[in-house]
Please model this.
Amino acid sequence: MKVTQTKIPSVFVIEPDAFGDQRGWFLETFSQKRYEQAGIKLPFVQDNVSFSAKNVLRGLHFQYPHSQGKLVQVLSGEVFDAAVDIRVGSPTFGQWVAETLSADNHKQMYIPPDFAHGFCVLSDTALFSYKCTDYYSGKDEGGIVFNDPDLKIDWPVASPTLSKKDAGYPRLKDIPKNKLPRFTGDK
Model:
């Protein structure tokens, strides 16, 4: 597998090796040993799958203090996937990275704990898979409005379909600092 560090240390794009022939293809989507060797050492404790239609945008979501790292991939379709550093005191605070993930390119993205995450669907539908390093905790969930003008995320969908909750999230600058994680070094 090929592992590429993004411009934000500890956020990785992973390209598993796919082995194919006239029958189709096979790929290993996760092996704890291989991912630990790549620097992804936190245990995964929960798997989630979401199904969304074209132009749906989910995010930007985070949990704090029970932060979730996520290993994400697309099982069917294509998405634009974004991660935002929300760690107070981080040299990359408020910066984002994004990658197009699809069933065809097999790419994954690892978003460490203490980052906000969101994606928008580019294909007619998308089946999106998340491996999480902590359990979902509703009391710890938070979010940032997707079009926060300070973040300037270049979403490829002009008028996304949002949930009421996602549309009502605040800008990053309006979230009290005690409701955000602290930078303790890249993990």
